[in-house]
Design a protein that fits this description.
The complex is a heterodimer of chains A (468) and B (193).
Chain A lengths: L6 H9 E3 L6 E4 L2 E4 L5 H9 L10 E4 L15 H17 L2 E3 L9 H8 L7 E4 L13 E4 L2 H10 L1 E4 L3 E8 L8 H12 L7 E6 L1 H4 L3 H9 L8 E3 L4 H7 L9 H11 L11 E6 L6 E3 L7 E3 L13 H11 L14 E4 L7 H11 L9 E4 L4 H9 L2 H8 L2 E2 L20 E4 L14 E4 L2 H10 L14
Parallel strand pairs in A: 3-4, 3-6, 4-5, 6-7, 9-10, 9-12, 10-11, 15-16, 15-18, 16-17, 18-19
Antiparallel strand pairs in A: 1-2, 2-8, 13-14
Helix pairs in contact in A: 2-5, 6-8, 12-14, 12-15
Chain B lengths: L5 E9 L6 H4 L19 H4 L22 E4 L11 H9 L3 E4 L4 H8 L4 E4 L2 H13 L3 E5 L4 E3 L5 E3 L4 H9 L3 H6 L2 H9 L2
Parallel strand pairs in B: 1-2, 2-3, 3-4
Antiparallel strand pairs in B: 1-5, 5-6, 6-7
The chains are: A alpha/beta (468), B alpha/beta (193).
The complex binds iron/sulfur cluster.
Chain lengths: 468, 193
């Protein structure tokens, strides 16, 4: 019998190009994803040193951070336009496939990778973006890198990586009705803190994880970085295989069945050891709402903001409460919002939009609230429209936009004004993230939809239609 | 990347935990396609008010920290987005060394790639220096080769940094050039796929 191994170790070992004691390993990269914000300086570096892109065929680019979600023909922001044009020029010069603003494959880079089947079990995937961990949902080793590393991967198709420690985040039991993958990952970060995963690659295991759809798994892995992890992943199973079958970039027909066998064999072996294990009980988790300025500052909907006398880092908590315009001990259900954003690489896939639509169907967004839905990709948008979701949202008073990062970080025109308060399905509630002085509350799509109707946070489990 | 062996500089204390890269450089400044010129946007929302005027209550704006080049910060410095614009902004502003109890992984790597020395330091010592830098003026002398920090009272504190990172910083080596020495191995690997 060979020693039981984790999926992390199995993928790692298959990708080592060069190893030397006392140094990081040189790892081969199977898939490099690129977007407009973190790549221009990397291409410039290549040109300055007379280098070229080693494997344009393993590189795929899109535009997502800057793209307008309304009028794409007339981009008012000159610098944004230049950044997108630069990506286009770079892709042409180096022969890289690009899904630009008008391309049917365009979308948030972490939505289109899986959608196209570029994301596959066992692959090493990098992107100049911290939420690259999303792709780990498929049992890929996927992590975010900086621009210097983007340049390095472009030039060499490899990256130097210290072998990280492994961590098992084990979710015992089942999630209750109306409790989503988003609530689970927020609860994990709230419980273990914003740096529980530093220096580690996290594997999520347990019954509740197995029962999640691929969309739910992507939501979980997406926010691994919010817990400080280098990457997060989930061993592939039948759900993974079913999701990828027939997608553009996976083998078709019998070849798919063959590769699927290999993928399933990557799953962590029974009895494999991790450097650390954390356990959380799924049944105890309620729908979550973040109240502060980092994703660990998060409580159940039935809870309240902390009481200063109870907390260790009093100054940090006070600063967060001040920024958020909240009092200590304030019940979450008393917090009124004026913006709702359903979108981002965490929660903008078809399944997310369907669930939110079910909540708002036949209801109206409360007066005075600006609510927008931004599908994660052009293709998600089309599918949603075929299913009539756009009408449900529009009739309820939501705006229905084109795909992109949008209000998740407000690099385009979708910004929340100073002091504005948003129920957001995105992943970061940092100061100023959605606009200077903007206040972000992280929630699931269902909770965001319910907040849009009620004008404040409510327990979505009380809404008809959510519990089936 | 410029080689760095030793650095002596005035300390700026920023006693906050979990300073994320959105704070270090807000997103509206990520649209430029150059690597330079980001210093003016460093800690933008803390340094400037809504009208673009300097905020008096943010210490970096005080004359006593003019020409600072050593940053002391709280735990988990540089968490959040992978934007390398964060170390570019710090470096362009003048920071050469960052000392904190812990760093986020991607930020730690990104700083090393740009010739900034990120130093992990246990909190007791760090807090002492933090206080000295807040109440008075503190100059620290960082010797990368010896892996020591010396303060004005001649207290010498050792620090850890992985040997390979140290070598690269000391020599200002270009990562890609180093990797290309293994080109043959990369080719072998590819042909085995
Ligand atoms: S949606 Fe938000 S978090 Fe995701 S890639 Fe875009 S900006 Fe980053």
């Amino acid at each position: 019998m060979t020693k039981p191994e984790t999926i992390i170790k199995k993928i790692w070992d298959k990708h080592v190009v060069h190893q030397e004691k006392g140094n990081p390993d040189l790892l081969y990269i199977d898939q490099h994803l690129i977007h407009e914000v973190t790549s221009p300086q990397a291409f410039e570096g290549l040109r300055m040193n007379n280098r070229t892109v080693r494997r344009p065929d393993l590189t795929f680019a899109t535009m997502d951070h800057n793209v307008p979600t309304k009028d794409r023909e007339n981009i008012k922001d000159e610098i944004s336009r230049k950044q997108m044009e630069t990506l286009k020029k770079n892709c042409e010069e180096f022969g890289i496939k690009l899904a630009d603003m008008f391309h049917p494959d365009q979308g948030i880079v972490h939505v289109i990778g899986p959608q196209l089947g570029l994301t596959q079990p066992g692959k090493t995937i990098v992107c100049g973006d911290s939420h690259t961990s999303t792709h780990g949902a498929f049992g890929a080793l996927a992590f975010g890198i900086g621009t210097s590393e983007v340049e390095h991967v472009l030039a060499t198709q490899t990256i130097w990586q210290e072998q990280p420690k492994t961590m098992n985040v084990h979710v015992e039991g089942d999630l209750g009705p109306g409790v989503t993958a988003k609530d689970l990952i927020l609860a994990i970060i709230a419980k273990f803190g914003v740096k529980f995963g530093t220096g580690h690659i996290v594997e999520y295991t347990g019954a509740a994880i197995r029962k999640l759809s691929m969309e739910g798994r992507m939501t979980i892995c997406n926010m691994s970085i919010e817990g400080g992890a280098r990457a997060g992943l989930i061993s592939p199973d039948q759900t993974t295989i079913d999701f990828l079958r027939g997608r553009e970039y996976v083998p078709q027909g019998d070849a798919y069945n063959e590769i699927a066998e290999q993928w399933l064999a990557l799953a962590t072996d029974e009895g494999a050891e991790y450097d650390a294990t954390l356990t959380i009980q799924a049944a105890e988790i309620e729908p979550q709402v973040s109240w502060g300025t980092n994703p660990a500052m998060c409580v159940p909907i039935s809870g309240a903001t902390p009481s200063i006398s109870d907390v260790e880092h009093k100054e940090d908590v006070q600063r967060a409460l001040d920024y958020m315009g909240l009092e200590e001990n304030q019940p979450i259900t008393s917090i009124e919002i004026d913006h709702v954003f359903i979108g981002s690489c965490t929660n903008s896939r078809l399944a997310d939009l369907e669930k939110a639509a079910r909540i708002v169907e036949g209801k109206k967004v409360k007066e005075g609230i600006k609510a927008i839905v931004v599908p994660g990709s052009f293709s998600v948008k089309l599918q949603a429209e075929e299913a009539g979701l756009d009408k449900i949202f529009l009739e309820a008073g939501f705006e229905w936009r084109n795909s992109g990062c949008s209000m998740c970080l407000g690099m385009n025109d979708d910004i929340i004004p100073p002091g504005g308060r948003c129920a957001s399905t995105s992943n970061r509630n940092f100061e100023g993230r959605q606009g200077n002085g903007a206040r972000t509350h992280l929630v699931s799509p269902e909770m965001a939809a319910a907040a849009a109707i009620e004008g404040r946070f409510v327990d979505v489990r009380k809404f008809v239609g959510v519990l089936n | 990347m410029e080689a760095i062996k030793q650095h002596q500089g005035l300390v700026f204390p920023l006693n906050r935990a979990n300073i994320d890269t959105d704070q270090i450089i807000p997103k509206q400044f990520l649209k430029r396609i150059e690597r330079t010129g980001f210093g003016q946007f460093l800690f933008f929302n803390w340094r400037f008010d809504d009208e673009g005027k300097e905020r008096a209550d943010f210490a970096l704006n005080q004359p006593k920290y003019k020409n600072t080049s050593v940053l002391l910060a709280g735990e988990n410095f540089g968490c959040g987005s992978s934007r390398e614009h964060a170390p570019w902004a710090l470096l362009d502003y003048g920071f050469k060394v960052i000392i904190a109890p812990s760093f986020a992984d991607i930020f730690y790597n990104n700083s090393l790639k740009n010739g900034i020395i990120p130093i992990k330091m246990e909190e007791t010592q760090l807090n002492k220096w933090m206080e000295q830098a807040e109440t008075g003026k503190l100059v620290l002398d960082i010797n990368l080769k010896e892996q020591t920090i010396t303060d004005e009272e001649k207290l010498v504190v050792p620090f850890e940094i992985p040997e390979y990172h140290k070598e690269k910083l000391l020599n200002g080596w270009d990562d890609i050039a180093l990797t290309l020495q293994h080109q043959e191995k990369i080719e072998q690997f590819e042909s085995s796929l």
